[in-house]
Design goal:
It is built from 31 helices and no strands. By secondary structure, it is an all-alpha fold. The longest helix is centred in the C-terminal third of the chain and has 44 residues. The protein is elongated.
């Protein structure tokens, strides 16, 4: 459509008050020669919110219904236009495709939506499905349509299709199209029985093939019987009950694969196929229900109600079809459950329930603190390769030759962080900031089962919150209380060994400046928190990938590895890699993100960098050594406050993002935050010790 044509269609809908535009759009239906599609489009434009602050669309929708109910002449004209419009359109694609993921797959649909944003597709106005895109031509129309109560839709279709109108309408033509849609959906579902991806996901899926084949055959029998009953009332027409039984069996097969995927992993293609198959089965049930009430003795009223419910959902779904955000959210949710389930299982290991768990957390966090102190020093060395005394003392070469280009510096930083975090993970140690992204997943799983009416469930959730708090505090304390003194010890020892200060005063001042709460420390800490959240998802993704692709078995089958290590050891290596691939990749890529952000900020001219509490505490120790502890107490306290706030930002951002993602993936809408926070506060006031230390009576059956 040309720009002039768009402006011509846009301007009339913007003239006058909303009430005048709505009245004019309704009165235009009195002209029997007017183009119905344009009339409906103008009416929808008058109802549609003018902007995000406009919240009266539902009220205007109700005004339309009231006007039609009060003005018989207008109602007859309106009904004549709309009913003739529906009866003259092709409906099959509307029944089979609206609200159902396309068969082209994820990537093709992604590019189609992006392409339509740049160059809109040409609609075929003979098809109802395409007409909906002309009528609801804003990609976010579904947002205000969702706010319209279902009762409004029932009232509208009751006005459009009363009993007498249904008898005059070419109802047989519409029923024939619904029957054709039932056949097409049944054949589409039957095709799932030979999908290689489904067979691969479930070794027993081939045993379910007969039920998928039977669905297509039963649908054909149902359609033929119903058509015979429509042609001759003496012929009995089935109610579709047997077809629905087989559909339920097919649904059970797909659900079995989905449950198995939570254990052995999934892929985007598998999740896509399962979602599309379940959508087709649900649409088949809806159409059979409409046909059932339409053929019954109470067909007119019941058919109108069934159609109204179906049409509202289908109209919404068809408008969402071009919403890129909704499409991405829908597809990301397909994999998010599996990814967050992996993270949730990892999160359980970060929660201290017993005294033994608590002691083990301290030990593992302390060990990580020691390694982080060394990693922080390596990063300082890389960032200060031009420090003459240090370089000449350690490497015995000219410092001027060691200026590292930015990309090399980013690579070295990434390797220090990435390989260091992987080593910490493989040694079974704990980085405090890795916990929130994992424990949030476990907490989200509990939130979905909580009902505030049951105090025992609230109390159980408070127990989990307390356990998460004391676990997090133990990990932070272990990291910081070791990273700081170890950094001081290393700096002092190397300074004595080299017979000059390890960290120059200029670098020490820079390290202290990076910790200032009034500078960029907190925004940079938030960036690190976002990376922590991403690392949790990466861990879950690779855990899922390793299980789904059976990485362990495939590694064990490598001929060179079997010859080198033997069959049994090759199997053990494969199993170890499969069990730890998620943690290795999550930690390594997290380190790469931390290491490259600062250099990326320099290259882009943006104030990008990261701050991490454990490294911040180590940097504070090296700064103190650089100043030979000759710092005023106020400066030390100010830097310590910066370290604490950096830690808070790390934890808060990663935990909030992870919890939001986990709740969305599980479809949980927890509405009882007030009751939960009140219960947590009550517990904290009565037994604050439980948020810091494990209960005295907790069994000592942990790792320690």
């Amino acid at each position: 459509m040309s720009l002039i044509a768009r402006l011509t269609r846009w301007l009339p809908g913007r003239q006058g008050s909303p009430e005048n535009r709505l009245s004019a759009a309704l009165e235009a239906f009195r002209d029997p020669a007017a183009d119905t599609l344009d009339l409906i489009r103008r009416l929808v434009a008058a109802v549609r919110p003018a902007n995000r602050r406009d919240t009266e669309a539902v009220e205007r929708y109700g005004t339309v219904l009231a006007r039609l109910e009060a003005d018989g002449g207008l109602l007859l004209a309106f009904r004549g236009h709309v009913v003739r419009f529906l009866a003259s359109r092709r409906l099959i694609t509307f029944f089979t495709d609206s609200g159902i993921l396309p068969g082209t797959g994820f990537s093709s649909e992604w590019w189609r939506i992006l392409g339509d944003r740049i160059l809109p597709e040409a609609p075929d106005e003979r098809r109802l499905k395409d007409c909906l895109h002309v009528i609801f031509d804003h990609p976010d129309d579904w947002r205000w349509q969702e706010q319209v109560p279902p009762g409004h839709s029932q009232r509208l279709w009751a006005l459009l299709l009363p009993a007498d109108e249904l008898r005059n309408l070419d109802w047989r033509g519409i029923v024939d199209q619904i029957l054709d849609a039932v056949l097409l959906l049944a054949h589409r579902i039957s095709g799932l029985g030979v999908e290689a991806e489904l067979m691969r996901a479930s070794p027993s899926f081939e045993d379910d093939l007969p039920r998928f084949v039977a669905l297509s055959a039963e649908a054909l029998d149902f359609v033929n019987a119903l058509r015979a009953g429509l042609d001759d009332a003496a012929n009995p027409a089935g109610d579709g009950s047997q077809l629905l039984v087989i559909a339920d069996q097919c649904q059970g097969s797909l659900q079995g694969i989905r449950k198995r995927a939570l254990t052995v992993g999934t892929s985007l293609q598998l999740s896509y196929l399962l979602a599309r198959g379940e959508q087709c089965l649900e649409r088949l049930r809806e159409l059979v229900a409409i046909l059932g009430v339409a053929h019954a003795s109470t067909a007119p009223g019941s058919a109108t109600a069934a159609w109204a419910e179906f049409a509202r959902a289908a109209f919404l779904a068809e408008n969402r079809r071009n919403s890129l955000g909704h499409y991405m959210a829908q597809l990301s949710r397909l994999l998010a459950v599996r990814v967050t389930e992996n993270a949730a299982r990892s999160g359980e290991h970060y929660i201290c329930e017993t005294v033994g768990d608590y002691r083990q957390m301290w030990r593992s966090a302390a060990g990580a603190g020691v390694l982080i102190a060394g990693m922080a020093l390596l990063k300082i060395f890389v960032a200060s390769l031009h420090a003459p005394l240090l370089v000449e003392a350690l490497l015995k070469i000219k410092a001027a030759a060691l200026h590292a280009p930015p990309l090399i510096e980013a690579f070295l930083f990434s390797m220090i962080y990435g390989l260091g975090f992987v080593l910490i993970y493989l040694l079974g140690m704990t980085v405090a900031t890795k916990q929130p992204a994992m424990t949030a997943q476990t907490l989200a799983g509990l939130l979905g089962d909580v009902r505030p009416a049951r105090q025992a469930e609230i109390d159980g959730l408070v127990d989990m919150v307390a356990a998460v708090c004391r676990s997090q505090l133990a990990a932070i304390a272990g990291n910081v209380m070791m990273a700081l003194p170890v950094a001081i010890a290393i700096g002092f020892w190397l300074g004595r060994l080299l017979d000059h200060p390890l960290i120059p005063l200029e670098k020490s001042a820079h390290l202290l400046g990076d910790l200032s709460p009034l500078g960029w420390a907190l925004p940079h800490a938030a960036v690190a928190g976002f990376y922590l959240f991403l690392s949790g998802l990466i861990t879950g993704y690779f855990d899922n990938r390793a299980a789904y692709r059976e990485i362990g078995i495939r590694i064990a089958r490598l001929r060179w590895l079997r010859r080198l290590a033997g069959g049994a050891r090759a199997a053990g290596i494969g199993a170890y890699i499969q069990d730890h691939l998620g943690g290795i990749m999550g930690n390594f890529l997290f380190g790469c993100m931390l290491g490259s952000t600062g250099v990326a900020g320099i290259l882009l001219g943006l104030p990008l960098d990261i701050r991490h509490i454990a490294f911040a505490s180590a940097n504070l120790g090296y700064a103190l050594i650089g100043f030979d502890f000759a710092l005023p107490l106020k400066a030390i306290v100010w830097a310590a406050l910066g370290v604490a706030l950096i830690g808070f930002a790390n934890l808060a951002v990663s935990f909030a993002l992870a919890l939001r993602t986990a709740l969305g993936a599980r479809g949980v809408r927890f509405r009882h935050w007030g009751a939960l926070l009140k219960a947590v506060w009550t517990r904290f006031c009565s037994t604050p010790r439980s948020f810091v230390l494990p209960p005295r009576g907790a069994a000592n059956d942990g790792h320690g």
